[in-house]
């Protein structure tokens, strides 16, 4: 099969012919139609996340068709369209799993990081961690729902009942969250890199009532803010925008160092919290909600062999919405 392979962090992906995998017990073999390109992929490729499986096929926003089922795998039938997300395995027995927090499982394994992912024509996955894809979403438009959407949805939940919501870093996740927030009757305020007028225009197009630079103040205090950009300096910036009792949610898996800031930014019962991974319950809830909004994903399409270009565009902040690899040309 065609695949894009990471041999070592910090190096470009290598186009190669790799062995087609086989479905093991409890697994499905998925013929990949599309795979979203996530900032987490960038962190893996750039060496900002430690200890990836090497060599590695990245990619964890996989949309494809079940082509083979392993022994004991009965959840999906041949030909079913499924999505494969970041969370690929948990032990199911630890205190986190047993308390509904499987996203924190110490034995968790992740697609495109410790398990080969979707930058290839085929991928295997534990059927228990796959999702049916909602009808009405073409493959390319469905792919960003599987991480950008899921992490955004979990982050929005942790923002509580905030009516005035700030979104720092307006990319794949934020453009989905803005639509969900509008559906829920919330007001959104978008913050982009200074001078990114196109990004601010895009934010207003998908529902933000105000958009400005990340070093600006919004026209009124916010109840909560979600930080999608991996920039630690945005934490004190976001704290300056939220009212007393407000929450700042850090949505990324990696962030640059957080600079020191004065306690008065945190005082007034403000809080800062992170969001880690996702649970299968998040996926079930969000994928049921997506058609109700309905969420429309903006995608920039790249061919499988253009994965390095897609990662480069994401690194440079040149992607409007989400980047997606069309693994099958008709995807």
Briefly summarize what is shown:
This is alcohol dehydrogenase. The chain has helices spanning about 40-45, 95-100, 140, 150-160, 170-185, 195-205, 235-240, 280-290, 305-315; strands at about 1-5, 15, 25-35, 60-70, 80-85, 85-90, 110, 120-125, 130, 165-170, 185-190, 210-215, 220-225, 240-250, 270-275, 300-305, 320-325. A hairpin with an 8-residue loop joins strand 1 and strand 2 (about 15).
Describe what you observe in this structure.
The protein is of the alpha/beta class and 331 residues long. It folds into 2 domains: 2-147 and 278-326, Medium-chain alcohol dehydrogenases, catalytic domain (Quinone Oxidoreductase, Chain A, domain 1, Alpha-Beta Complex); 150-274, NAD(P)-binding Rossmann-like Domain (Rossmann fold), CATH 3.40.50. The protein has 9 helices and 17 strands. It has helices at 39-45, 95-98, 139-142, 148-158, 172-183, 197-205, 234-241, 280-289, 307-315, and strands spanning 2-5, 14-17, 27-37, 62-69, 81-84, 87-89, 109-110, 122-126, 131-132, 164-168, 187-192, 210-213, 222-227, 242-250, 271-274, 299-303, 322-326. Strands 3, 4, 5, 8, 9, 16 and 17 form a 7-stranded mixed β-sheet that branches. It has a 6-stranded parallel β-sheet with strand order 12-11-10-13-14-15, sandwiched between helices. Strands 1-2 form a two-stranded antiparallel sheet. Strand 16, helix 9 and strand 17 (322-326) form a beta-alpha-beta unit. Helix 4 (148-158) packs across helix 5 (172-183). The mean pLDDT is 97.
């Amino acid at each position: 099969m065609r695949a894009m392979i990471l041999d070592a962090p910090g190096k470009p992906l290598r186009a190669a012919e790799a062995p087609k995998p086989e479905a093991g017990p409890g697994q499905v073999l998925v013929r990949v139609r599309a795979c979203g390109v996530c900032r987490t992929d960038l962190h893996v490729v750039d060496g900002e996340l430690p200890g990836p499986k090497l060599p590695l096929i990245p990619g964890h926003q996989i949309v494809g068709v079940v082509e083979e089922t392993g022994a004991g795998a009965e959840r999906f039938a041949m030909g079913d369209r499924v999505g494969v997300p970041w969370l690929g395995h948990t032990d199911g027995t630890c205190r986190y799993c047993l308390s509904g927090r499987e996203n924190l499982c110490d034995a968790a394994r992740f697609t495109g990081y410790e398990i080969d992912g979707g930058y290839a024509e085929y991928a295997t996955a534990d059927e228990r961690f796959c999702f049916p894809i909602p009808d009405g979403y073409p493959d390319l438009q469905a792919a960003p729902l599987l991480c950008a959407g899921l992490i955004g949805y979990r982050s929005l939940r942790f923002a509580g009942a905030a009516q005035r919501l700030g979104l720092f870093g307006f990319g794949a996740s934020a453009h989905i969250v803005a639509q969900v927030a509008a559906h829920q009757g919330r007001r959104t305020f978008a913050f982009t890199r200074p001078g990114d007028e196109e990004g601010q225009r895009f934010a207003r197009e998908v529902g933000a009532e105000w958009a400005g630079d990340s070093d600006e103040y919004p026209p009124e205090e916010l109840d909560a803010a979600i930080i999608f950009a991996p920039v630690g300096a945005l934490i004190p910036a976001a704290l300056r925008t939220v009212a007393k009792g407000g929450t700042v949610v850090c949505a990324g898996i990696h962030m640059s160092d957080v600079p020191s800031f004065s306690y008065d930014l945190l005082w007034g019962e403000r809080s800062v919290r992170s969001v880690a991974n996702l649970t299968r319950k998040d996926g079930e809830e969000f994928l049921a909600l997506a058609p109700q909004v309905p969420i429309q994903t903006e995608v920039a399409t790249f061919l499988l062999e253009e994965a390095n270009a897609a990662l480069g565009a994401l690194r440079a902040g040149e992607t409007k919405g989400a980047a997606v690899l069309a693994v099958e040309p008709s995807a």
